[in-house]
Write a structure and sequence with these properties.
With about 240 residues, the chain is an alpha/beta fold. About 30% of the residues lie in helices and about 25% in strands. The strands form three sheets. The protein has a seven-stranded mixed sheet.
Length: about 240
């Protein structure tokens, strides 16, 4: 039987667990994510061997006859199920605590590709009555919700696009995800961070700036010291104390 809580005002102690990190190539997005507690990487760039954390190479595969032998829809389901079950049965020091999706842009393309391969078509529009688009939207939303249900930190990494206004000549920078997909993914995150760099080569300086927050976070409420230190490197994450 459900017991109703008392009608009292609670003091929130918010902690961020879901992050959306975007930026141009080689500005330190993956490097930043690799320092989160005990990460496992869902990698799409084909460079998982170059990382310092364990990784799964996410990809669709076919045999010589064109028959699918591995679909990312099934692969992601199996990985998430293992994180839900096997990970929790491990000793605390052997458990993963962070999932890094690197990069979400490619995952979205692969989800669409997997649905097309499974249905023997070239595009989602070839599946009658809009069913292809419905299958894709369900797959993306299910992936985001399944990851969010894990008792772990989740980091989505995305690329960057530059848009220059023809009238003013002003260039603005945005995540490369289409708006409708960005709203699904970032809408389930706590912190949106843009990574960037100034300079080139060994003389480059790397920066991270917070673009949006779900709520105002207080450093004293963030119990994981490693995450706190990482967030302190991002400008705009915490409200500055007034100088006396």
């Amino acid at each position: 039987m459900i017991v109703l809580p008392k009608p009292q005002k609670l003091v929130p102690k918010a902690q961020p667990h879901y992050f959306f990190v975007w930026g141009a190539p080689m500005v330190g997005k993956s490097y930043f994510a690799s320092f989160f507690p005990k990460p496992i990487i869902l990698n799409t760039d084909g460079n998982s061997d170059q990382g310092t954390a364990p990784a799964f190479q996410i990809r669709n595969l076919r045999d010589k006859n064109g028959k699918p032998t591995q679909l990312v829809t099934d692969q992601l389901d199996e990985i998430i199920l293992a994180l839900q079950t096997e990970n929790e049965q491990r000793k605390p020091e052997e458990q993963f605590k962070t999932v890094v999706v690197d990069v979400i842009d490619d995952i979205i393309v692969m989800l669409e590709q997997a649905i097309c391969w499974e249905n023997g078509v070239k595009s989602l529009g070839d599946i009658a009555y809009g069913k292809g688009y419905a299958l894709f939207n369900t797959a993306l939303q299910q992936l985001v919700m399944d990851l969010k249900a894990l008792p772990m930190n989740i980091i989505y990494i995305s690329r960057e696009i530059a848009i220059t206004d023809d009238n003013t000549g002003v260039t603005t920078y945005h995540p490369s995800l289409k708006t409708k997909y960005f709203n699904v993914v970032n809408g389930n995150c706590d912190v949106e961070i843009r990574a960037k760099k100034v300079g080139d080569g060994v003389n480059a300086t790397y920066y991270r700036e917070v673009k949006s927050l779900r709520t105002q976070y207080d450093p004293k409420n963030i119990t994981d010291h490693r995450i706190l230190k990482l967030l302190e490197t991002c400008s705009g994450i915490f409200k500055e104390e007034p100088k006396k």
